[in-house]
Amino acid sequence: MRRGAYKTSSKNLVYAAWHDLTGASGCTVNSNAPGSNTSSTCKSRIWFARSTNGGSTWSTPVMINNQSSLNDQFQPHLTVDETNGLVSIVYYDTVADSGRHKADVWYQSSADDGATWSSYAPWVEEMARRGITSGCGGGNFCPNDSVTRAQMAVFLVTTFGLH
To the nearest whole number, what is the mean pLDDT of the chain? Predict the structure, then answer.
């Protein structure tokens, strides 16, 4: 489980994100997990809950991206921008692999304290939208190319505002 918080004079928010099975019929306990059965209708999803009173009570958990396809989502990482409260979650998703093994990194955000979520997008697309990267030339992205230490430093400084 990943947690984050955002506190101002009028807000005392605590957030949690985790992966779990969907809870649909036949997908409620670990023994239902798809394992090596790529046609299993049981799927793992990213779940989110928030507290508006510092953690005393919690909202009903929600799935932030419940695609209809047979894919799995896992290992979420949650961050909260302390300057504006933007909640961001990146996670792995096997949606591009029918074998449910190869995973890509996906990104979603909430600008309203976790009440609603942006459409999901591959993280590299979100980095391009934010002007963090422009790719490797000609509008292309080269995910298998090496990234130098200097390039990674620019990504981190720009992404997290570490100027």
Answer: 86
Do residues 64 and 124 share a domain? yes
User: Are the C-beta atoms of 124 and 140 separated by less than 8 Å?
Assistant: no
123 has pLDDT over 90:
no
* CA–CA dist 6, 52 (Å, integer): 10
Q: What is the mean pLDDT of residues 105-128?
A: 82
- For residue 52, give its domain range: 2-130
- The per-residue pLDDT for 161 is 66
Whether residues 58 and 94 share a domain: the answer is yes
- Rounded to two decimals, the pTM is 0.76
Question: Which amino acid, residue 115?
Answer: A
49: Cβ–Cβ under 8 A, 6 or more apart, which residues? 15, 16, 58, 59, 60, 61, 62
Query: Residue 29's closest CA among 20, 40, 41, 17?
Result: 20
